[in-house]
């Protein structure tokens, strides 16, 4: 659902061209990069309300909420579709425009290579081609992907390693917007912290949490569909399943990527192996990460247990660390680093479009106590990671 801004706000003349966020490993809504430290996504009022009423104890486990922004769908002189954000006047100086980035070049190449010789195809045809060919092959394979693309000026862009899931979601999102909103129609997006901006090679595990994945507002057909997915995956028996992953392989200098379709097929043993794979850099298991990850997960478990009435339906949990290992440190540097977070491990909850709690949008359904399904998933996740830590 896209909430459109129908107010007749005068165009400021300053636009930030949004780029596909190339470290998106899961989800279905397109995450866009606004600047180096900020991403944005289509505004869903229920999610906005959650961020605006976020309990203090949860703030260190969620991306920082930075407000909303007006976005337009525009087509340039070469027929390339893009999303252009128009920031508030007080923010204009803070966000430089990036029009020739690798993300834009990759996206434009996908438009060009799927188009006919007479020019870009209509967007719906482009989506059909993309869905049925390139993306389907990429997303359903077990791959480490490195690709080379041609820039808008015809020159070869250096070989870059990227996860194709973000481009896949971006394609689907543009298709929806093109059918729902005419060009230049204003839409609203949420601005959120880019939680991987500090990482050189961000390794990200996206875990769908809980035993129920549908919201209270879901139709009977949607409820049945999500219940079937849960029953056929580790969501039912563990309360958690893999929804996407990228892990940097130091021996190959590229990411190994897995998608949600891979995660749905995993058995309990397969889930355990996936967690081990996420912590393996191609040459060794990063055991030094397990302590910080477990510590953060235990802290999150304490917070979730204290949140009465919250149900985090269909939300995800990100486990993040840097695949680029820190350089060798002197004993003194190693000692001082223990005071901070030397492994740069982070744990973040994301995706709250179906989260409900006392006083939220759904006034008819109020739950008592903490989210037992989410807690069940966290406890199992912690238990499996402890087994890996102990070598079992």
TrEMBL record:
GO terms for cellular component: cytoplasm; nucleus. Keywords: ATP-binding, Kinase, Nucleotide-binding, Transferase. Coiled coil: none annotated. Its EC number is 2.7.-.-. Gene3D superfamilies: Inositol polyphosphate kinase. InterPro entries: IPK, IPK_sf. One of its GO terms (biological process) is inositol phosphate biosynthetic process. It holds the Pfam family IPK. One of its GO terms (molecular function) is ATP binding. SUPFAM superfamilies: SAICAR synthase-like. Belongs to the inositol phosphokinase (IPK) family. This is Kinase. It comes from Nannospalax galili.
């Amino acid at each position: 659902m896209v909430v459109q801004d129908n107010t007749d706000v005068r165009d400021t003349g300053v636009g930030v061209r949004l780029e596909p966020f190339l470290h998106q490993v899961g989800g279905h809504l397109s995450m866009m990069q606004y600047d180096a430290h900020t991403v944005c996504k289509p505004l869903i009022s229920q999610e906005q309300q959650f961020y605006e009423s976020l309990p203090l104890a949860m703030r260190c486990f969620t991306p920082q909420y930075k407000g909303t922004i007006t976005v337009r769908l525009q087509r340039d002189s070469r027929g390339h579709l893009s999303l252009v954000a128009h920031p508030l006047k007080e923010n204009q100086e803070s966000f430089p425009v990036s029009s020739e980035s690798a993300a834009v070049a990759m996206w434009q190449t996908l438009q060009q290579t799927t188009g006919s010789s007479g020019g870009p195809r209509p967007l719906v045809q482009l989506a059909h081609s993309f869905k049925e060919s390139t993306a389907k092959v990429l997303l359903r394979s077990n791959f480490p992907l490195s690709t080379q693309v041609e820039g808008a000026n015809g020159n070869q862009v250096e070989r870059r390693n990227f996860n194709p899931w973000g481009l896949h979601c971006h394609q689907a999102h543009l298709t929806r917007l093109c059918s729902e909103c005419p060009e230049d129609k204003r839409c609203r997006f949420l601005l959120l912290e880019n939680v991987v901006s500090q990482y050189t090679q961000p390794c990200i595990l996206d875990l769908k949490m809980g035993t129920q994945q549908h919201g209270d507002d879901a139709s009977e057909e949607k409820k049945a569909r999500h219940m079937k997915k849960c029953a056929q995956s580790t969501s039912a028996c563990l309360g958690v399943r893999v929804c996407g992953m990228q892990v940097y392989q130091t021996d190959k200098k590229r990411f190994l990527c897995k998608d949600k379709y891979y995660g749905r097929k995993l058995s309990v043993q397969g889930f355990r192996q996936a967690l081990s794979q996420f912590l393996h850099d191609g040459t060794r298991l990063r055991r030094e990460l397990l302590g910080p990850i477990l510590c953060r997960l235990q802290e999150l478990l304490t917070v979730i247990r204290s949140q009465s009435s919250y149900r985090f339906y269909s939300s995800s949990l990100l486990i993040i660390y840097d695949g680029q290992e820190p350089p060798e440190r002197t004993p003194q540097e190693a000692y001082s680093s223990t005071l901070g977070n030397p492994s740069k491990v982070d744990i973040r909850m994301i995706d709250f479009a179906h989260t409900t709690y006392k006083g939220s949008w759904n006034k008819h359904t109020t739950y008592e106590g903490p989210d037992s399904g989410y807690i069940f998933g966290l406890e199992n996740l912690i238990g499996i990671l402890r087994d890996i830590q102990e070598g079992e």
